[in-house]
Write a structure and sequence with these properties.
The chain folds into two domains: 60 residues, DNA polymerase, domain 1; 291 residues, Aldolase class I (TIM Barrel, Alpha-Beta Barrel), CATH 3.20.20. It is 34% helix and 16% strand. The protein contains twelve helices and 13 strands. Bound molecules: S-adenosyl-L-homocysteine (SAH). S-adenosyl-L-homocysteine binds next to β10 and β12.
Length: 380
Amino acid sequence: MSSLAHAEKFAPPAEPATARRNLIGLSRQELEAEMAGLGEKPFRARQLWHWIYHRGVADFAEMTTLSKAFRARLAETYCLARPEASLDQLSSDGTRKWLLRFADGQEAECVFIPDEERGTLCVSSQVGCTLTCRFCHTGTQRLVRNLSAAEIVGQVMLARDCLGEWPTPSGEERRITNIVLMGMGEPLYNFDNVAQAMRIVMDGEGISISKRRITLSTAGVVPMMERCGRELDVNLAVSLHAVTDEIRDVIVPLNKKYPLAALLEACRAYPGAHNARRITFEYVMLKDVNDGAEQAHALVALLRDLPAKVNLIPFNPWPGAPYATSEPATVKAFSDILFEAGISAPIRRPRGRDIMAACGQLKSASERQRKRETETTATA
Ligand code: SAH
């Protein structure tokens, strides 16, 4: 399916005509058009933008630079709706995961990963995922739809609400310093909404997270990669996971459509990739599948002419997963081979495994619950 056909088939639901329109997720131009519709000048949109994205207010009544009458009028016509957090879990390592419930009852997850020198918010781009990577729990979820721009930027706003981060503190005090599009879904299959949300997040008069601190991770939707670099210019991460088409076809089925040679060519052509800003290649370590020393040497050869770094991710297990986690010594040996060849290849420490918040473990709880219910009915 083309990216366009995908966008149509999995489109988020339209807002009901009777509902108050959500201002969150609108671009600056769209917000200006709304204000023009109310007979207001463009600077009103700028004032609103400041209240919504810099101060984070969720209630028009708090917008004290606007007249009371105008605030009341806004509240009649619009809302500032974030997704609802139907579950809020804290891991023993400080990782925090929210299960988000959207207006139509669909759900996705969002994870905050605090570190000494940074705080990373892992954002979802879809409810579920169409890709069915064999090692990924999200890929077993049948329910799929794209998230709207409002639902994507709403994850950042909800996280800031819950972390008590409004109004925007100075850079040093921020808890969310980085954003990774590595939650549920394939962001390049929902590029328009992801791009609109990231432009809002990057806007200097609002949430103001720089493109240097945003990383989009793709399983390799080759035809969309150039556009992503040109229009968004964020950091790129590529879920490589294998050094031969034979293995990658099995673990990342998208490889059958866009094989390794085409994927690496798209990486070489990625706008903005250079030595100071390397592409991250993610490599999940699956025991006896892709973790051998000869595969590490083959990886070095594949990445030879690319500005690359590698993230080695020990496989995060989930119930019923068909793989096992590589032995720590095997992962270390793999990493050493890459380092010796001059490629940075840190081993990622799993975070939030106890609350199923680690890479590839996300799957909405309601989906699990539903599945349990169907199984119980089936056996009854
Ligand atoms: N669809 C995008 C982003 C979501 S996945 C992509 O494929 O890149 C984010 C990262 O987690 C990817 O590198 C993915 O391959 C990895 N991942 C998925 N399942 C995993 C698991 N069980 N253990 C470790 N990493 C996993």
